[in-house]
Amino acid sequence: PSTHSGTVGRNSGDMNVEEALQVLGLTGTPTKDEITRAYRKVMQQLHPDRGGSEYFAAKVNQAREVLNSRFG
Question: What local confidence, expressed as pLDDT, does residue 72 receive?
Answer without folding.
Answer: 79
